[in-house]
Fold:
Amino acid sequence: MSGERVVPDRSAIVADLERGRREFHQLAQTVNQRDWFYRDLTISDFSIGELLAHTQRNLALAPSQVEAARHERSLWRLPHWAFNPLRLLGARWSAWRSSPQNITEKYDEAHAALLRKLETIKDDEWQHGAYFYDQGYWTVAFIFRHQSEHVAEHAATVRRLLASKRARRFGYS
Structure:
């Protein structure tokens, strides 16, 4: 029905964010310092640590993304060819400033900040949105929903990278 506002279930959002947090923790616990900068360009332009740092950094940016979306202010609206190198550089910088030992702590800080932001969302703000990066139009609701999807997407790539590293170590590549 046109014009009908859909108000997401906040407890479902919290459960979804918590599911993403658990998945991130489980994944990060499988990574050691020797894995951190491993990269296989046939799988990803990002190293294992860069993917984890990128995922954590994205969560840390989510409260400001929500704030921009609720006020319908676009952020870094660029074409993919222009933004993707910036994304990769940001991930590399974040990975150099992080480690397998502190990435979950950083994730938890970002997670807590996003939960605090969730408490401030009014029922009429969920469908507010703006254009973000090279990704298109994001609503406030999408930004919250996207977090666990983002973890799952990059967790799958990290697992493939870890399998590739182990296969190479044993001569199976």
In short: The mean pLDDT is 92. The longest strand covers residues 129-132. The chain is about 65% helix and 5% strand. The radius of gyration is 17 Å.
